[in-house]
């Protein structure tokens, strides 16, 4: 019954998201698309870091594998595979890359795993710059549009018009992002609520206790790394479709730090928290770039003034958000929202009038003569 109620509450939100392309312009749809892609990757990192307790600084590497894997598999030069097949293979390729690293992830933990995954970022960036035939080198490479069943998620000629609204690349990719995000939401929550999620939590809390209960610690930690890599590969492919051209400099250490910020701000071990953190971290620099002329101490893009650029200002703000979250809400925005809902429910319960059942009238005692 509770699941039905939750689905009923989500229905208005789903309808609102489905109707947005008919009412907002391409800028807001682009922000939403990048936020959904980031939420997919953050859900995978939350599963790895929040649930399994493994620190990873190499998430940008697996995003790059998904992005460049799709661009090479579906493009020229490359095999020129059907784009839908290339998307699936790019996700599997990212999972395979995580599988090659998973034996180390199954045996190393804490800061040592973080340093090991950090090496992946620098190694991957070097490969992206030098493997010109696959990645295009410093200038990057264009991304072929996704085509499914003859429908292309890009601008086409003649233009598609739905209910009087022209549907270009942003509108079409919006619905693709919604579908992929919904798939991520369902699968990630299924993992967290099922036996694998309980096993990963046991491993995170105490490896010794988990091993005593029969949990194969190394196998579950390795599996968490592979699954997280596949989510990152899917996010990277969706980002590539949104950018339409990818360059190596985007997939650097700063991107990995951004994803860590997402799961910390949103709340570790929660898909909803990872989504909230992804929206915050992704949308903030884009909004500050657009409205830089109206913000104090923020310089417009391309200006040479002494003010802070919008990207740097956004990093300062969500850096401050991380500090505030760690100090006052260690479980992130998701935990804060959960506590607020509990307080509101408690206030409603207290304010509701008590309806005690009326007592039956006392019967008079019978006097015996």
UniProtKB/TrEMBL annotation:
<dbReference type="Pfam" id="PF02653">
    <property type="entry name" value="BPD_transp_2"/>
</dbReference>
<feature type="transmembrane region" description="Helical">
    <location>
        <begin position="31"/>
        <end position="48"/>
    </location>
</feature>
<dbReference type="InterPro" id="IPR001851">
    <property type="entry name" value="ABC_transp_permease"/>
</dbReference>
<feature type="transmembrane region" description="Helical">
    <location>
        <begin position="55"/>
        <end position="73"/>
    </location>
</feature>
<feature type="transmembrane region" description="Helical">
    <location>
        <begin position="85"/>
        <end position="104"/>
    </location>
</feature>
<keyword id="KW-0812">Transmembrane</keyword>
<feature type="transmembrane region" description="Helical">
    <location>
        <begin position="111"/>
        <end position="129"/>
    </location>
</feature>
<feature type="transmembrane region" description="Helical">
    <location>
        <begin position="223"/>
        <end position="247"/>
    </location>
</feature>
<feature type="transmembrane region" description="Helical">
    <location>
        <begin position="259"/>
        <end position="287"/>
    </location>
</feature>
<feature type="compositionally biased region" description="Low complexity">
    <location>
        <begin position="351"/>
        <end position="362"/>
    </location>
</feature>
<keyword id="KW-1133">Transmembrane helix</keyword>
<protein>
    <submittedName>
        <fullName>Branched-chain amino acid ABC transporter permease</fullName>
    </submittedName>
</protein>
<dbReference type="GO" id="GO:0005886">
    <property type="term" value="C:plasma membrane"/>
</dbReference>
<dbReference type="InterPro" id="IPR043428">
    <property type="entry name" value="LivM-like"/>
</dbReference>
<feature type="region of interest" description="Disordered">
    <location>
        <begin position="347"/>
        <end position="369"/>
    </location>
</feature>
<keyword id="KW-0472">Membrane</keyword>
<feature type="transmembrane region" description="Helical">
    <location>
        <begin position="173"/>
        <end position="192"/>
    </location>
</feature>
<keyword id="KW-1003">Cell membrane</keyword>
<dbReference type="GO" id="GO:0015658">
    <property type="term" value="F:branched-chain amino acid transmembrane transporter activity"/>
</dbReference>
């Amino acid at each position: 019954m509770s699941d039905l109620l939750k689905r009923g509450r989500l229905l208005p939100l789903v309808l609102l998201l489905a109707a947005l392309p008919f009412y907002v312009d391409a800028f807001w749809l682009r922000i939403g698309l990048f936020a959904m892609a980031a939420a997919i990757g953050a859900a995978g990192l939350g599963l790895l870091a929040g649930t399994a307790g493994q620190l990873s600084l190499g998430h940008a590497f697996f995003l790059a594998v998904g992005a460049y894997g799709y661009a090479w598999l579906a493009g020229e030069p490359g095999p020129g595979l059907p784009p839908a097949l290339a998307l699936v293979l790019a996700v599997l390729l990212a999972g395979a890359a995580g599988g090659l690293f998973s034996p180390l992830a199954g045996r190393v933990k804490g800061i040592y795993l973080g340093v090991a995954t950090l090496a992946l970022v620098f190694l991957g960036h070097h490969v992206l710059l030098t493997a010109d035939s696959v990645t295009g080198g410093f200038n990057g490479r264009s991304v072929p549009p996704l085509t499914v069943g003859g429908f292309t998620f890009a601008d086409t000629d003649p233009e598609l018009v739905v209910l009087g609204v022209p549907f270009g690349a942003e509108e079409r990719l919006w619905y693709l992002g919604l579908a992929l995000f919904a798939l991520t939401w369902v699968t990630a929550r299924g993992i967290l609520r099922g036996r694998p999620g309980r096993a990963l939590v046991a491993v995170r809390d105490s490896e010794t206790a988990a091993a005593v209960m029969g949990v194969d610690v190394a196998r579950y930690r390795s599996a968490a790394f592979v699954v997280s890599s596949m989510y990152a590969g899917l996010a990277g492919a969706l980002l590539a479709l949104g950018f339409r051209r990818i360059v190596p400099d985007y997939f650097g250490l700063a991107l990995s730090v951004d994803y860590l910020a997402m799961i910390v701000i949103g709340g570790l071990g929660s898909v909803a928290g990872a989504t909230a953190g992804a929206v915050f971290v992704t949308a903030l620099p884009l909004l500050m770039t657009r409205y830089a002329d109206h913000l104090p101490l923020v310089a417009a893009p391309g200006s040479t003034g002494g003010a802070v650029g919008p990207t740097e200002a956004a990093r300062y703000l969500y850096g401050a958000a991380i500090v505030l979250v760690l100090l006052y809400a260690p479980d992130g925005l998701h935990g804060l929202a959960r506590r607020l809902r509990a307080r509101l429910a408690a206030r409603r319960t207290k304010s509701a009038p008590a309806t005690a059942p009326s007592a039956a009238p006392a019967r008079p005692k019978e006097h015996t003569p």
